[in-house]
Specification:
The complex is a heterodimer. Chain A is α/β, with parallel strands linked by helices. Chain A has helices at 18-30, 40-52, 139-145, 147-153, 164-171, 403-410, 416-432, 438-454; strands at residues 12-13, 77-78, 81-85, 112-117, 120-124, 135-138, 175-181, 191-197, 204-205, 207-213, 218-227, 232-241, 246-253, 260-269, 274-281, 286-295, 301-310, 315-324, 330-339, 344-353, 361-370, 376-385, 391-399. Chain A has one domain. At the A-B interface, α6 and α7 of A face α2, β7 and α3 of B.
Chain lengths: 460, 266
Amino acid sequence: MPSGISETLEALPFAPSSETLERAIALLARNPQAGGAVDAALRREALALYASLPAPGMRPARGWKHDYDKLRYDDLVWTSDRRTVETAPFGAPAAHADPEADRPALETANAAGIVHLGATLLEPEDGAPTDPRVVVLPLSDALRAHGELVASAAHAAVDWRADKFAALATAFQNCGAFVYVPDGVQLDAPVQLVFASTEAQDEAVFPHVVVVLGKNARATVLERHVGQGDAFVCGIVEARLGDGAQLDYAVVQQASEAARLFFARGARCGRDARMGWHLAELGGTLARTVLGAQLGEPGARAETSALFFNTGMQHVDLTSGADHIVGPTTSDTVVRSAATDRGQGRYVGNIVIRPKAHGSDASLRDDALILGARAHVDSIPALEIAANDVRAFHGATVGSLDEDALFYAGSRGIARPQALRLITLGFFEPVVARFPSEALRDEVRTALDHKIDDATEIDG
Amino acid sequence: MSSTRGLIARDLRVAVESKEILKGIDLTVEPGRVHALMGPNGSGKSTLAFTLAGHPGYEVLSGSASLDGEELLELAPDKRAKAGLFLSFQYPAAIPGVTVANFLRTARQSVRPGDLTPAKFRKLVFDKLDTLDMDPAFLGRYVNDGFSGGEKKRLEMLQMAIIAPKYAILDETDSGLDVDALQSVGKSVNALRASEEGRDIGFLVITHYPRILRHIEADVVHIMIDGRIVKTGGPELAEEIEREGYDAVRDASTSSAQAEAAAARA
């Protein structure tokens, strides 16, 4: 553990029950400095919805090991706390970093950042790096200091009342972050939000992240998941982009191989705003993610780039959505996935073009690479078009490695395992290339390279 | 070992999907020499190229192939390349997401590990690009992905120049090329042959049409028909094909085969 931190405040055994929720509400009431940022009535409503909402998604493919109605929460604890640490623990806190893992160096130039270990906010004594032009605060603090701003964006871009796990995240919210970039401010360095876990205590973590960009503001937010143990992380990320704003929100998920993650992430885009979602799901045993963009003002644009690479027993269930409410708006979605071993994947790509969205342009491209006989990826594009004079493209492939390309590389002296690595990494490149910085792109490439090492079955 | 120098096929018989395509090929390409292998479509020229390079879809029924004394047929494709063999593909595969620069570096590293510092490798690449009149922007593109026919062949020539093999098989490198691209291919082969590292390369230039031989001068010309080499001669043989087509050779070989058969019966 990082030195200089206090004793644990309180921790409850977690279960998605009213009893646990009441204890959690009481705990937060006693500790106003903790991470709570949802009022009690809303929490109770959310838990009731969680219980009544159906499990997301459709009937899973054969081989899918997780049943959303029968998730187990044994030995997880729920807490909400903050502690002071000596130095800013960006990335995985050193005590929890895996010395064996050759993790790439985290980007050091941060505009600002927030680090959580489980649901405990880690606050460096000397203060986190801060760009004075921006607000980056734990969500609970932001509610007190910038209540109206938070309220303008929270519970708006993700419809938590319609999503079982977003409802659960609302009910048990125990940490979070708020990022505000005022009108006209353009950040060069990313704001980093780190969610780390430790083997010492398996936690149920329910973050709520709210990002607000003013008019013509420009920023990159980097959300990381790292660590060890059997964490259960279920969160909501919401972004509101003012007119002309540009937000790149990148997620590099390298949680422990036993971790389970559920995220609903949504953005509302102003006129001529551009939202970039960049998602790399690399860790965890189960990761369910919903990415959405509401294009409700003319000129708004959503760019969604997502990749996953399932090895071992990993399951990834990814849904992306672009909602063209008015026209002309554009969306461009590129998804690349690979699976081997007993890896299972499901991608659902939703494009909705509503009746008023004349002149809109939507493109959805999704390709999956199957590297092992027992692996499986489903690809389900769904386009719903209610306006005329729009352009909508979708294409999906599920395939195996190109033997012609392997032979070609072999004829250049490149041995089969290396050729396979080269071709597989190349397969992901259209998504990697859209990540917002070269440092991040290289980090994702390195992580993918390590995934190939992790795979036990990679050549059929 | 001097007696076994060369890219050598002996009585090579090869089937594709159980159909015998090569019916006993004997061929020796010596270091530093250019052999042209001509023949009509379907005569088995590309089958020979793929068999020598180790394509898994080609079944060797009998015979042998060696490169400077090293048996090729038991080797995986990459081992053959490491032994010194290069195949310029008629239809090179695309490798999306892998840049030409990365691919060239990986190929050179595989065939000749650690022989060049990154700076020297970079210089080599730019020198070869210059020789081939190729835009350095090529390096940032993905291997053969969205390339025109001419661009693909230029990239094959660039790879050949960078790898500098002992023996190079050019499989219909002229097909689908316009005059400019063909000239560029000829120029690149001749530039390589004139260079220190390229002067001992033995070439097997596979072609349907004689026109590439106006750009790459052959020392020996072989005519392949129906899985056999039916005639071997000097450059004048290519001119003969240009004048009279393959039918003349085919008829001659058929009648000579008939004569042999008749002699055997007698």
